[in-house]
Amino acid sequence: MQTIDLATTPLRELNTALQAQAAQTNQTEWQILNPKGAHAIAVGLDAPIEVTVRGHTGYYCGGMNKQATIRVAGSAGPGVAENMMSGTVVIEGDASQYAGATGNGGLLVIKGNASSRCGISMKGIDIVVHGNIGHMSAFMAQSGNLVVLGDAGDALGDSLYEARLFVRGTVKSLGSDCVEKEMRPEHLDLLRDLLDRAGADARPEEFRRYGSARKLYHFNVDHAAAY
Amino acid sequence: MCGIVGLFLKNDSMRPRLGEMLTDMLITMTDRGPDSAGIAIYGEGDQLKITVQSDSPQTGFAGLDADLAAALDGPVTMRVIDTHAVLTLPDGTEAQARAFLLDRGLRVMGTGHSMEIFKEVGLPRDVARRFGLRAMSGSHGIGHTRMATESAVTTLGAHPFSTGTDQCLVHNGSLSNHNRMRRVLADKGFAPLTANDTEVAACYLSSRLAEGADLGQALEGTLQDLDGFFTFVVGTRTGFGVVRDPIACKPATMAETDDYVAFGSEYRALADLPGIEAARVWEPEPATVYFWER
Protein backbone atom coordinates (compact mmCIF):
# COMPACT_ATOMS: atom_id res chain seq x y z
CA MET A 1 0.00 0.00 0.00
CA GLN A 2 1.14 3.52 -0.87
CA THR A 3 0.84 6.00 1.99
CA ILE A 4 0.88 9.75 1.49
CA ASP A 5 0.93 12.04 4.50
CA LEU A 6 -0.54 15.45 3.74
CA ALA A 7 1.28 16.83 6.78
CA THR A 8 4.47 16.49 4.76
CA THR A 9 3.37 16.17 1.11
CA PRO A 10 1.79 19.08 -0.77
CA LEU A 11 -1.76 18.42 -1.99
CA ARG A 12 -0.81 19.07 -5.61
CA GLU A 13 1.85 16.38 -5.42
CA LEU A 14 -0.68 13.91 -4.04
CA ASN A 15 -3.20 14.59 -6.80
CA THR A 16 -0.51 14.48 -9.50
CA ALA A 17 0.61 11.06 -8.25
CA LEU A 18 -2.94 9.70 -8.10
CA GLN A 19 -3.90 11.12 -11.48
CA ALA A 20 -0.79 9.54 -13.06
CA GLN A 21 -1.90 6.00 -12.26
CA ALA A 22 -2.60 4.01 -15.43
CA ALA A 23 -5.30 1.39 -15.84
CA GLN A 24 -2.73 -1.37 -15.36
CA THR A 25 -0.97 0.13 -12.33
CA ASN A 26 0.45 -2.16 -9.69
CA GLN A 27 -0.08 0.53 -7.08
CA THR A 28 -3.74 -0.23 -6.51
CA GLU A 29 -4.06 0.70 -2.84
CA TRP A 30 -3.41 4.14 -1.42
CA GLN A 31 -4.03 5.76 1.92
CA ILE A 32 -3.93 9.46 2.67
CA LEU A 33 -3.10 10.65 6.17
CA ASN A 34 -3.77 14.02 7.85
CA PRO A 35 -6.27 15.45 5.37
CA LYS A 36 -7.29 18.07 7.97
CA GLY A 37 -10.15 19.34 5.86
CA ALA A 38 -8.02 20.16 2.80
CA HIS A 39 -9.85 20.96 -0.43
CA ALA A 40 -9.91 18.85 -3.61
CA ILE A 41 -8.34 15.68 -2.21
CA ALA A 42 -8.16 12.84 -4.78
CA VAL A 43 -9.86 14.72 -7.60
CA GLY A 44 -9.80 13.84 -11.28
CA LEU A 45 -8.69 10.22 -10.82
CA ASP A 46 -8.97 7.89 -13.81
CA ALA A 47 -7.74 4.44 -12.80
CA PRO A 48 -9.25 1.48 -10.93
CA ILE A 49 -7.33 2.21 -7.71
CA GLU A 50 -8.54 2.22 -4.11
CA VAL A 51 -7.87 5.34 -2.08
CA THR A 52 -8.67 5.68 1.62
CA VAL A 53 -8.59 9.11 3.24
CA ARG A 54 -8.12 8.85 7.00
CA GLY A 55 -9.84 11.91 8.45
CA HIS A 56 -12.22 14.71 7.47
CA THR A 57 -12.01 16.31 4.03
CA GLY A 58 -12.89 19.82 2.79
CA TYR A 59 -14.49 21.01 -0.43
CA TYR A 60 -14.78 18.76 -3.52
CA CYS A 61 -13.13 15.52 -2.37
CA GLY A 62 -13.29 12.87 -5.09
CA GLY A 63 -14.59 15.32 -7.69
CA MET A 64 -14.72 14.22 -11.34
CA ASN A 65 -13.81 10.68 -10.33
CA LYS A 66 -13.55 7.96 -12.97
CA GLN A 67 -13.06 4.28 -12.06
CA ALA A 68 -11.42 4.81 -8.67
CA THR A 69 -12.87 3.75 -5.33
CA ILE A 70 -12.39 6.54 -2.81
CA ARG A 71 -13.28 6.00 0.82
CA VAL A 72 -13.29 8.81 3.40
CA ALA A 73 -12.89 7.51 6.93
CA GLY A 74 -14.40 10.69 8.32
CA SER A 75 -16.80 13.38 7.14
CA ALA A 76 -16.68 15.27 3.85
CA GLY A 77 -17.06 18.97 3.15
CA PRO A 78 -19.18 20.61 0.43
CA GLY A 79 -19.36 19.14 -3.07
CA VAL A 80 -18.01 15.66 -2.39
CA ALA A 81 -17.85 13.54 -5.59
CA GLU A 82 -19.02 16.53 -7.60
CA ASN A 83 -19.41 15.61 -11.27
CA MET A 84 -18.33 12.01 -10.72
CA MET A 85 -18.26 9.99 -13.97
CA SER A 86 -17.80 6.43 -12.68
CA GLY A 87 -16.28 4.49 -9.80
CA THR A 88 -17.31 4.64 -6.15
CA VAL A 89 -17.01 7.20 -3.37
CA VAL A 90 -17.88 6.13 0.17
CA ILE A 91 -18.15 8.59 3.08
CA GLU A 92 -18.10 6.89 6.47
CA GLY A 93 -19.34 10.01 8.27
CA ASP A 94 -21.54 12.90 7.14
CA ALA A 95 -21.40 14.89 3.93
CA SER A 96 -21.91 18.63 3.67
CA GLN A 97 -24.00 20.43 1.06
CA TYR A 98 -24.37 19.47 -2.62
CA ALA A 99 -22.89 15.98 -2.32
CA GLY A 100 -22.75 14.27 -5.71
CA ALA A 101 -23.78 17.45 -7.54
CA THR A 102 -24.03 17.09 -11.33
CA GLY A 103 -22.68 13.51 -11.11
CA ASN A 104 -22.80 11.61 -14.40
CA GLY A 105 -22.22 8.09 -13.13
CA GLY A 106 -20.74 5.86 -10.46
CA LEU A 107 -21.95 5.27 -6.91
CA LEU A 108 -21.75 7.69 -3.98
CA VAL A 109 -22.48 6.16 -0.57
CA ILE A 110 -22.86 8.37 2.50
CA LYS A 111 -23.03 6.34 5.71
CA GLY A 112 -24.09 9.30 7.83
CA ASN A 113 -26.30 12.25 6.88
CA ALA A 114 -26.01 14.52 3.86
CA SER A 115 -26.98 18.18 4.23
CA SER A 116 -28.75 20.44 1.78
CA ARG A 117 -28.82 20.11 -2.01
CA CYS A 118 -27.67 16.47 -2.09
CA GLY A 119 -27.68 15.26 -5.70
CA ILE A 120 -28.48 18.68 -7.15
CA SER A 121 -28.58 18.45 -10.94
CA MET A 122 -27.47 14.80 -10.88
CA LYS A 123 -27.15 13.33 -14.37
CA GLY A 124 -26.80 9.60 -13.94
CA ILE A 125 -24.98 9.08 -10.64
CA ASP A 126 -26.42 6.74 -8.01
CA ILE A 127 -26.41 8.15 -4.47
CA VAL A 128 -27.26 6.11 -1.38
CA VAL A 129 -27.52 7.99 1.93
CA HIS A 130 -27.82 5.84 5.03
CA GLY A 131 -29.03 8.77 7.14
CA ASN A 132 -31.06 11.89 6.32
CA ILE A 133 -30.73 14.49 3.57
CA GLY A 134 -31.29 18.25 3.81
CA HIS A 135 -33.48 20.67 1.91
CA MET A 136 -33.58 21.15 -1.88
CA SER A 137 -32.05 17.74 -2.55
CA ALA A 138 -32.20 16.41 -6.12
CA PHE A 139 -33.07 19.90 -7.36
CA MET A 140 -33.31 19.71 -11.18
CA ALA A 141 -32.01 16.12 -11.03
CA GLN A 142 -31.91 14.74 -14.55
CA SER A 143 -31.17 11.03 -14.25
CA GLY A 144 -29.75 8.46 -11.86
CA ASN A 145 -31.08 7.29 -8.50
CA LEU A 146 -31.10 8.92 -5.07
CA VAL A 147 -31.81 6.49 -2.22
CA VAL A 148 -32.35 7.79 1.32
CA LEU A 149 -32.73 5.43 4.26
CA GLY A 150 -33.66 8.25 6.63
CA ASP A 151 -35.73 11.40 6.11
CA ALA A 152 -35.65 14.08 3.41
CA GLY A 153 -35.85 17.83 4.09
CA ASP A 154 -37.93 20.51 2.40
CA ALA A 155 -38.55 20.75 -1.34
CA LEU A 156 -37.30 17.31 -2.36
CA GLY A 157 -36.90 16.94 -6.12
CA ASP A 158 -37.88 20.49 -7.05
CA SER A 159 -38.06 20.93 -10.85
CA LEU A 160 -37.14 17.29 -11.24
CA TYR A 161 -36.43 15.68 -14.61
CA GLU A 162 -36.01 11.91 -14.86
CA ALA A 163 -34.01 10.97 -11.77
CA ARG A 164 -35.68 8.45 -9.45
CA LEU A 165 -35.89 9.25 -5.76
CA PHE A 166 -36.45 6.58 -3.09
CA VAL A 167 -37.02 7.60 0.53
CA ARG A 168 -37.63 5.23 3.43
CA GLY A 169 -38.43 7.85 6.07
CA THR A 170 -40.49 11.01 5.94
CA VAL A 171 -40.31 13.76 3.34
CA LYS A 172 -40.76 17.19 4.89
CA SER A 173 -42.12 18.57 1.64
CA LEU A 174 -41.97 17.84 -2.07
CA GLY A 175 -40.63 20.48 -4.45
CA SER A 176 -42.46 21.82 -7.45
CA ASP A 177 -43.41 19.11 -9.97
CA CYS A 178 -42.18 16.24 -7.74
CA VAL A 179 -44.80 13.61 -6.92
CA GLU A 180 -44.99 10.21 -5.28
CA LYS A 181 -45.14 7.40 -7.82
CA GLU A 182 -46.05 3.76 -7.84
CA MET A 183 -43.28 1.34 -6.85
CA ARG A 184 -43.26 -1.27 -9.60
CA PRO A 185 -41.31 -4.58 -9.61
CA GLU A 186 -38.49 -3.13 -11.72
CA HIS A 187 -38.03 -0.38 -9.12
CA LEU A 188 -37.81 -2.93 -6.31
CA ASP A 189 -35.15 -4.81 -8.27
CA LEU A 190 -33.20 -1.62 -8.93
CA LEU A 191 -33.42 -0.59 -5.29
CA ARG A 192 -32.39 -4.04 -4.04
CA ASP A 193 -29.26 -3.88 -6.15
CA LEU A 194 -28.38 -0.34 -5.00
CA LEU A 195 -28.93 -1.15 -1.32
CA ASP A 196 -26.83 -4.24 -1.69
CA ARG A 197 -23.96 -2.38 -3.36
CA ALA A 198 -24.14 0.37 -0.73
CA GLY A 199 -24.04 -2.10 2.16
CA ALA A 200 -27.35 -0.74 3.42
CA ASP A 201 -29.45 -2.79 5.79
CA ALA A 202 -32.92 -2.06 4.44
CA ARG A 203 -35.62 -3.78 2.41
CA PRO A 204 -36.79 -2.24 -0.90
CA GLU A 205 -40.42 -2.63 0.15
CA GLU A 206 -39.90 -0.08 2.95
CA PHE A 207 -39.29 2.78 0.49
CA ARG A 208 -41.53 5.16 -1.39
CA ARG A 209 -40.67 6.34 -4.88
CA TYR A 210 -40.84 9.95 -6.04
CA GLY A 211 -40.42 11.29 -9.54
CA SER A 212 -41.30 14.07 -11.93
CA ALA A 213 -44.92 14.89 -12.74
CA ARG A 214 -43.47 16.23 -16.02
CA LYS A 215 -45.67 19.30 -15.93
CA LEU A 216 -42.81 21.78 -16.14
CA TYR A 217 -41.15 20.28 -19.21
CA HIS A 218 -42.86 22.71 -21.55
CA PHE A 219 -44.17 26.11 -20.69
CA ASN A 220 -47.88 26.01 -20.04
CA VAL A 221 -49.58 29.17 -18.89
CA ASP A 222 -51.90 27.14 -16.67
CA HIS A 223 -48.83 26.08 -14.65
CA ALA A 224 -47.29 29.53 -14.42
CA ALA A 225 -47.52 29.54 -10.65
CA ALA A 226 -45.42 26.37 -10.39
CA TYR A 227 -42.36 27.73 -12.20
CA MET B 1 -16.85 34.65 0.83
CA CYS B 2 -15.54 35.26 4.35
CA GLY B 3 -14.09 33.13 7.10
CA ILE B 4 -15.38 32.83 10.63
CA VAL B 5 -13.77 31.23 13.65
CA GLY B 6 -14.99 31.06 17.22
CA LEU B 7 -13.95 29.37 20.41
CA PHE B 8 -15.90 29.16 23.67
CA LEU B 9 -13.91 27.53 26.45
CA LYS B 10 -15.60 25.28 28.98
CA ASN B 11 -12.33 24.39 30.67
CA ASP B 12 -10.93 27.46 32.45
CA SER B 13 -7.40 26.05 32.48
CA MET B 14 -7.26 26.62 28.71
CA ARG B 15 -7.83 30.38 29.01
CA PRO B 16 -4.16 31.34 28.69
CA ARG B 17 -4.13 29.54 25.31
CA LEU B 18 -7.26 31.15 23.84
CA GLY B 19 -5.38 33.73 21.77
CA GLU B 20 -2.95 31.17 20.43
CA MET B 21 -5.69 28.77 19.36
CA LEU B 22 -7.85 31.51 17.81
CA THR B 23 -4.90 33.00 15.94
CA ASP B 24 -4.07 29.69 14.28
CA MET B 25 -7.73 29.21 13.37
CA LEU B 26 -7.92 32.74 11.95
CA ILE B 27 -4.81 32.38 9.81
CA THR B 28 -6.12 29.08 8.42
CA MET B 29 -9.12 31.01 7.09
CA THR B 30 -6.97 33.54 5.19
CA ASP B 31 -7.97 32.29 1.75
CA ARG B 32 -11.64 32.85 2.60
CA GLY B 33 -10.95 36.48 3.48
CA PRO B 34 -7.57 38.06 2.82
CA ASP B 35 -8.53 41.75 2.87
CA SER B 36 -9.20 42.39 6.57
CA ALA B 37 -9.26 40.50 9.82
CA GLY B 38 -10.59 41.05 13.28
CA ILE B 39 -11.10 39.43 16.61
CA ALA B 40 -13.26 40.01 19.67
CA ILE B 41 -11.78 38.53 22.78
CA TYR B 42 -13.50 38.15 26.13
CA GLY B 43 -10.91 38.35 28.87
CA GLU B 44 -10.74 39.18 32.51
CA GLY B 45 -11.70 42.41 34.20
CA ASP B 46 -14.75 44.08 35.63
CA GLN B 47 -13.93 47.60 34.58
CA LEU B 48 -15.66 49.20 31.61
CA LYS B 49 -13.37 49.41 28.58
CA ILE B 50 -13.68 51.08 25.22
CA THR B 51 -11.48 50.07 22.29
CA VAL B 52 -10.73 52.83 19.76
CA GLN B 53 -8.74 52.96 16.52
CA SER B 54 -6.73 55.69 14.85
CA ASP B 55 -5.01 55.67 11.46
CA SER B 56 -2.25 57.79 13.03
CA PRO B 57 -1.95 56.41 16.54
CA GLN B 58 1.11 58.45 17.49
CA THR B 59 -0.78 61.70 17.28
CA GLY B 60 -4.28 60.26 17.71
CA PHE B 61 -3.53 58.70 21.10
CA ALA B 62 -1.12 61.36 22.41
CA GLY B 63 -2.42 62.58 25.75
CA LEU B 64 -5.72 60.85 25.13
CA ASP B 65 -5.99 59.25 28.57
CA ALA B 66 -5.39 62.52 30.41
CA ASP B 67 -7.79 64.46 28.20
CA LEU B 68 -10.49 61.82 28.56
CA ALA B 69 -9.98 61.63 32.33
CA ALA B 70 -10.44 65.40 32.53
CA ALA B 71 -13.55 65.27 30.37
CA LEU B 72 -15.10 62.46 32.40
CA ASP B 73 -13.79 63.74 35.71
CA GLY B 74 -12.61 60.26 36.66
CA PRO B 75 -9.68 57.89 36.29
CA VAL B 76 -8.83 56.59 32.82
CA THR B 77 -6.05 54.21 31.83
CA MET B 78 -4.85 53.58 28.30
CA ARG B 79 -3.15 50.60 26.68
CA VAL B 80 -2.00 51.26 23.11
CA ILE B 81 -1.65 48.26 20.81
CA ASP B 82 -0.66 49.23 17.26
CA THR B 83 -3.54 51.27 15.80
CA HIS B 84 -5.85 50.49 18.71
CA ALA B 85 -6.08 51.80 22.25
CA VAL B 86 -8.01 50.18 25.07
CA LEU B 87 -9.23 52.78 27.55
CA THR B 88 -10.69 51.89 30.93
CA LEU B 89 -13.51 54.17 32.02
CA PRO B 90 -15.40 54.94 35.21
CA ASP B 91 -18.75 53.11 35.19
CA GLY B 92 -21.64 55.00 33.67
CA THR B 93 -19.50 57.20 31.44
CA GLU B 94 -19.76 55.15 28.26
CA ALA B 95 -22.00 57.52 26.29
CA GLN B 96 -20.01 60.58 27.31
CA ALA B 97 -16.71 58.89 26.51
CA ARG B 98 -17.97 57.67 23.14
CA ALA B 99 -19.05 61.18 22.15
CA PHE B 100 -15.69 62.60 23.26
CA LEU B 101 -13.71 60.00 21.31
CA LEU B 102 -15.76 60.33 18.13
CA ASP B 103 -15.42 64.10 18.37
CA ARG B 104 -11.68 63.58 18.49
CA GLY B 105 -11.79 61.73 15.18
CA LEU B 106 -11.23 58.27 16.65
CA ARG B 107 -13.14 55.17 15.56
CA VAL B 108 -14.86 53.19 18.28
CA MET B 109 -14.40 49.44 17.86
CA GLY B 110 -16.49 48.41 20.84
CA THR B 111 -17.14 48.68 24.53
CA GLY B 112 -17.25 46.04 27.18
CA HIS B 113 -16.32 44.93 30.65
CA SER B 114 -14.59 41.84 29.35
CA MET B 115 -14.62 42.31 25.55
CA GLU B 116 -11.90 43.97 23.50
CA ILE B 117 -12.05 44.22 19.69
CA PHE B 118 -9.07 44.46 17.37
CA LYS B 119 -9.60 44.68 13.62
CA GLU B 120 -7.67 46.05 10.70
CA VAL B 121 -7.25 45.92 6.96
CA GLY B 122 -4.57 43.41 5.91
CA LEU B 123 -3.77 39.73 5.85
CA PRO B 124 -4.97 37.87 8.96
CA ARG B 125 -1.41 36.82 9.78
CA ASP B 126 -0.25 40.44 9.76
CA VAL B 127 -3.24 41.72 11.70
CA ALA B 128 -2.73 39.02 14.33
CA ARG B 129 0.95 39.88 14.66
CA ARG B 130 0.36 43.62 14.92
CA PHE B 131 -2.07 43.17 17.80
CA GLY B 132 -0.25 40.33 19.52
CA LEU B 133 -3.40 38.21 19.38
CA ARG B 134 -1.44 35.05 20.06
CA ALA B 135 -0.58 36.15 23.60
CA MET B 136 -4.12 37.10 24.60
CA SER B 137 -6.07 35.05 27.10
CA GLY B 138 -9.75 34.82 27.80
CA SER B 139 -12.88 32.72 28.12
CA HIS B 140 -14.14 33.02 24.55
CA GLY B 141 -13.40 34.81 21.33
CA ILE B 142 -14.66 35.28 17.78
CA GLY B 143 -12.60 36.06 14.70
CA HIS B 144 -13.34 36.96 11.10
CA THR B 145 -11.40 37.09 7.84
CA ARG B 146 -13.10 39.36 5.33
CA MET B 147 -13.55 39.24 1.57
CA ALA B 148 -15.61 42.37 1.11
CA THR B 149 -18.81 42.40 -0.93
CA GLU B 150 -21.21 44.94 0.56
CA SER B 151 -19.02 47.86 1.62
CA ALA B 152 -15.52 49.27 1.36
CA VAL B 153 -12.35 47.60 2.64
CA THR B 154 -11.77 49.79 5.69
CA THR B 155 -11.18 49.28 9.39
CA LEU B 156 -14.81 50.14 10.11
CA GLY B 157 -15.98 47.67 7.46
CA ALA B 158 -14.03 44.84 9.09
CA HIS B 159 -15.68 42.45 11.54
CA PRO B 160 -16.47 41.88 14.40
CA PHE B 161 -19.12 44.56 14.78
CA SER B 162 -20.03 45.64 18.26
CA THR B 163 -23.17 47.68 18.82
CA GLY B 164 -23.78 46.96 22.49
CA THR B 165 -21.67 46.56 25.60
CA ASP B 166 -19.83 43.23 25.52
CA GLN B 167 -21.75 42.24 22.35
CA CYS B 168 -20.16 41.34 19.05
CA LEU B 169 -21.21 39.74 15.79
CA VAL B 170 -19.41 38.38 12.73
CA HIS B 171 -21.10 37.44 9.47
CA ASN B 172 -20.49 35.42 6.35
CA GLY B 173 -23.02 36.31 3.67
CA SER B 174 -24.95 39.35 2.56
CA LEU B 175 -28.22 40.82 3.75
CA SER B 176 -30.82 42.03 1.29
CA ASN B 177 -33.20 43.97 3.53
CA HIS B 178 -30.61 45.98 5.43
CA ASN B 179 -31.79 49.35 4.12
CA ARG B 180 -35.28 48.87 5.46
CA MET B 181 -33.90 47.46 8.72
CA ARG B 182 -31.69 50.54 9.10
CA ARG B 183 -34.78 52.72 9.30
CA VAL B 184 -36.53 50.37 11.73
CA LEU B 185 -33.46 50.20 13.97
CA ALA B 186 -32.83 53.96 13.83
CA ASP B 187 -36.36 54.50 15.14
CA LYS B 188 -35.52 52.22 18.05
CA GLY B 189 -32.33 54.13 18.82
CA PHE B 190 -29.96 51.55 17.32
CA ALA B 191 -28.89 53.33 14.14
CA PRO B 192 -25.96 51.69 12.33
CA LEU B 193 -22.99 54.01 11.87
CA THR B 194 -21.53 52.49 8.69
CA ALA B 195 -22.86 51.46 5.27
CA ASN B 196 -22.07 47.84 6.09
CA ASP B 197 -24.91 45.29 6.07
CA THR B 198 -23.40 43.25 8.91
CA GLU B 199 -23.57 46.18 11.29
CA VAL B 200 -27.34 46.18 10.73
CA ALA B 201 -27.48 42.60 12.01
CA ALA B 202 -25.39 43.57 15.03
CA CYS B 203 -27.72 46.51 15.75
CA TYR B 204 -30.70 44.20 15.37
CA LEU B 205 -29.36 41.79 18.00
CA SER B 206 -28.44 44.65 20.33
CA SER B 207 -31.96 46.07 20.02
CA ARG B 208 -33.52 42.71 20.80
CA LEU B 209 -31.22 42.12 23.77
CA ALA B 210 -32.02 45.63 25.05
CA GLU B 211 -35.73 44.78 24.81
CA GLY B 212 -35.15 41.88 27.18
CA ALA B 213 -34.69 38.95 24.80
CA ASP B 214 -32.10 36.36 25.76
CA LEU B 215 -29.39 35.47 23.26
CA GLY B 216 -31.35 32.52 21.90
CA GLN B 217 -34.49 34.59 21.39
CA ALA B 218 -32.54 37.39 19.71
CA LEU B 219 -30.93 34.90 17.33
CA GLU B 220 -34.32 33.32 16.56
CA GLY B 221 -35.49 36.79 15.58
CA THR B 222 -32.89 37.06 12.82
CA LEU B 223 -34.66 34.21 11.01
CA GLN B 224 -37.89 36.21 10.86
CA ASP B 225 -36.62 39.74 10.45
CA LEU B 226 -33.43 39.55 8.40
CA ASP B 227 -33.47 38.54 4.74
CA GLY B 228 -30.47 37.31 2.81
CA PHE B 229 -27.59 34.95 3.29
CA PHE B 230 -26.04 34.65 6.67
CA THR B 231 -24.04 32.57 9.00
CA PHE B 232 -23.74 34.64 12.18
CA VAL B 233 -21.53 33.93 15.15
CA VAL B 234 -22.13 36.19 18.13
CA GLY B 235 -20.62 36.76 21.53
CA THR B 236 -21.90 38.29 24.73
CA ARG B 237 -20.15 38.58 28.08
CA THR B 238 -21.26 35.10 29.05
CA GLY B 239 -22.57 33.63 25.82
CA PHE B 240 -21.66 32.32 22.40
CA GLY B 241 -24.20 31.74 19.64
CA VAL B 242 -24.51 30.55 16.05
CA VAL B 243 -27.33 30.80 13.52
CA ARG B 244 -27.56 30.16 9.75
CA ASP B 245 -30.26 31.35 7.38
CA PRO B 246 -32.75 28.74 6.08
CA ILE B 247 -31.00 28.36 2.70
CA ALA B 248 -27.64 27.82 4.45
CA CYS B 249 -25.31 28.34 1.48
CA LYS B 250 -22.58 29.73 3.71
CA PRO B 251 -20.54 26.91 5.17
CA ALA B 252 -20.26 26.13 8.86
CA THR B 253 -18.68 23.43 10.99
CA MET B 254 -18.77 23.02 14.74
CA ALA B 255 -16.91 20.87 17.21
CA GLU B 256 -17.54 20.25 20.89
CA THR B 257 -15.50 18.51 23.55
CA ASP B 258 -15.55 18.67 27.36
CA ASP B 259 -13.08 21.55 27.04
CA TYR B 260 -14.59 23.81 24.36
CA VAL B 261 -17.15 24.60 21.69
CA ALA B 262 -15.52 25.67 18.42
CA PHE B 263 -16.85 27.15 15.20
CA GLY B 264 -15.14 27.26 11.81
CA SER B 265 -16.36 28.19 8.35
CA GLU B 266 -14.54 25.04 7.36
CA TYR B 267 -13.21 22.05 9.25
CA ARG B 268 -9.68 23.15 8.31
CA ALA B 269 -9.94 25.87 10.95
CA LEU B 270 -10.64 23.28 13.65
CA ALA B 271 -8.25 20.57 12.51
CA ASP B 272 -5.41 21.49 14.88
CA LEU B 273 -7.43 22.09 18.05
CA PRO B 274 -6.43 19.90 20.98
CA GLY B 275 -8.55 16.76 21.28
CA ILE B 276 -10.29 17.36 17.94
CA GLU B 277 -9.93 13.67 17.02
CA ALA B 278 -12.38 12.78 19.79
CA ALA B 279 -14.62 15.84 19.39
CA ARG B 280 -18.22 15.74 18.22
CA VAL B 281 -17.98 17.44 14.83
CA TRP B 282 -21.16 18.52 13.04
CA GLU B 283 -22.61 20.96 10.57
CA PRO B 284 -25.09 23.33 12.22
CA GLU B 285 -28.57 22.89 10.74
CA PRO B 286 -30.17 25.66 8.67
CA ALA B 287 -32.55 28.02 10.52
CA THR B 288 -31.51 26.54 13.87
CA VAL B 289 -30.18 28.53 16.80
CA TYR B 290 -27.26 27.19 18.80
CA PHE B 291 -26.06 28.99 21.89
CA TRP B 292 -24.04 28.37 24.98
CA GLU B 293 -24.06 30.40 28.20
CA ARG B 294 -21.60 30.08 31.03
UniProtKB/TrEMBL annotation, chain A:
Q: Which residues form a coiled coil?
A: none
**Alphabetized Pfam families for the sequence:** GXGXG
State any single GO MF term. Answer: oxidoreductase activity
- The Glutamate synthase alpha subunit C-terminal domain covers 41-176
Q: What is this protein identified as?
A: Protein GlxC
TrEMBL record, chain B:
Q: Which UniProt keywords apply?
A: Glutamine amidotransferase, Transferase
A GO MF term: transferase activity
Gene3D superfamilies according to UniProt: Glutamine Phosphoribosylpyrophosphate, subunit 1, domain 1
Looking up SUPFAM superfamilies in the UniProt record yields: N-terminal nucleophile aminohydrolases (Ntn hydrolases) (SSF56235)
Against Pfam families, the record matches this protein to: GATase_6
- What domain of life does the native source organism fall in? Bacteria
Q: Where is the Glutamine amidotransferase type-2 domain?
A: 2-294
User: What PANTHER family does the database record attribute to this sequence?
Assistant: AMIDOPHOSPHORIBOSYLTRANSFERASE (PTHR11907)
Protein name in UniProt: Glutamine amidotransferase
Q: Which organism is it from?
A: Paracoccus gahaiensis
Tell me the organism's taxonomic lineage.
Answer: Bacteria, Pseudomonadati, Pseudomonadota, Alphaproteobacteria, Rhodobacterales
